[in-house]
Amino acid sequence: MQQRGIISFGAYVPRRRLARRTICSANSWANPGLAATAHGHKAICSHDEDSLTMAVAAARYALAERPEDNAPDMLVFASTTMPFADRQNAGVIAEAASLSENTCTADMGGSLKAGVGALRMALERPGETLVVAADKRLTRPGGPQELRIGDAAAAIVVGEGDPLAEFVARRAVSVDFTDHYRSSDAQFDYQLEERWARDAGLLHIVPGPIRGLIEDAGIGGENIAHFVAAGLGNRNARTIAKHCGIPEGAVTPDLHAECGDTGTAHPLLLLTKALQSAAPGEFILLLGYGQGAEALLFRATDTIGRASGMTGADAMLADGVEDGNYLRFLSFNGHVSMDWGMRAERDNRTAQSAFFRHRDTVTGCIGGRCTACGTPQFPKSRVCVNPGCRATDSQVSEPFADKPASVKSFTEDWLALSFNPPLMYGNVRFAGGGVAMLEFSDFEPSELAVGAPLAMQFRLKDVDDRRGFRRYCWKAVPPRELSTHTTADKEMEGASHG
């Protein structure tokens, strides 16, 4: 019988980092006590990012390690902040990740342990499953949650054959313990008293399933080399480890100082970190907590060395840019309403019929390649753009999302509407051929330059507040400077000189 376990993984943490000292400085007049927790940074989404765009990025990193002819047959998206209540979010991710229309898709939420629950479900079914977890939780300005909570996504591919870590056992307990909650019509979590949440909930609920899991596996707590307990805090994780006989040194750091607590994504984000530091034969215990607890046990295989070449938490956290503008952060999250002028007074209704016809281009970043002359072009059109060819109906689909690219021309427009001005757009040259007019994101004013390297990323295009619809597209962004790279990153230097 083939081993079943974790085949590959990917992580995504937004480039923007907000220093906690910036938050405390802005709110010290109302809550001077925040200064005691002013160390480190939290990862924050830009104006055109949400849980769905982050999920797409993490999924693509995870799939970059898989052969194209061995794509997952199921995708599960776990989140407590899905953009849509009645439009399957996982279906959008599947199209943006260029998965087949035959891929089964499902959304899973309702608890911060949903990411671990989705991973457990994937491990217990046949076939190959892509599990993606992401959260972009809103927090009330000036409160402790604003300091603690960050944004991120993580993706795990589960299957059979030659996994990085094999699945050994699992235990779960369901307890309706409401240490915090958020109703369906609320923006913010309601948090109860932390000491009660710890003593009556965390320390009472969590040790049982962990001890049971260790007993089921026929090992001792001292055999756990990596204890991944997300969202508990380092001190609480060490306390639980001690109660269960797990060495204190096995506790995976919670990354509070680096990115904050990223909700449903956090257990899987920390798991990528543990996988990249594990040695063959070591046991990894993953815990998900929220209205109960779920614990999964893995054993690193002889192929765990492959994990070092994948895009995990450490690579993403090493590539960040500090944003010291607290007012901009509030604006990005809708906490302040800026006056964007008359250009914001528009009806940005989405033409759904046109969007459906062109969804391969808009959601999948699929262009065309002329079969008569070989010219790649984006978007695909009936007539070849090559003036020496002009063949009709000659194009086959050509993916552009992973193509390296560079700036051919650009405009910084301070008059056009942008929620992070100026609006930046221009011509993007793709390696191997193809030029497209696209919007740029994640650049600061005066930072763009002709020939600068670019990568494509799935982002928010517009939000129709009147009808509650979000429109997405692909934008050109600076390539992430990661210690491990996708194919596009490796070829980027060649594109900038193409």
From TrEMBL:
Keywords: Acyltransferase, Transferase. SUPFAM superfamilies: Nucleic acid-binding proteins, Thiolase-like. Pfam families: ACP_syn_III_C (PF08541), zf-ChsH2 (PF12172). This is 3-oxoacyl-ACP synthase. One of its GO terms (molecular function) is acyltransferase activity. Gene3D superfamilies: 3.40.47.10. Coiled coil: none annotated. Residues 215-293 form the Beta-ketoacyl-[acyl-carrier-protein] synthase III C-terminal domain. Residues 366-393 form the ChsH2 rubredoxin-like zinc ribbon domain. GO terms for biological process: secondary metabolite biosynthetic process.
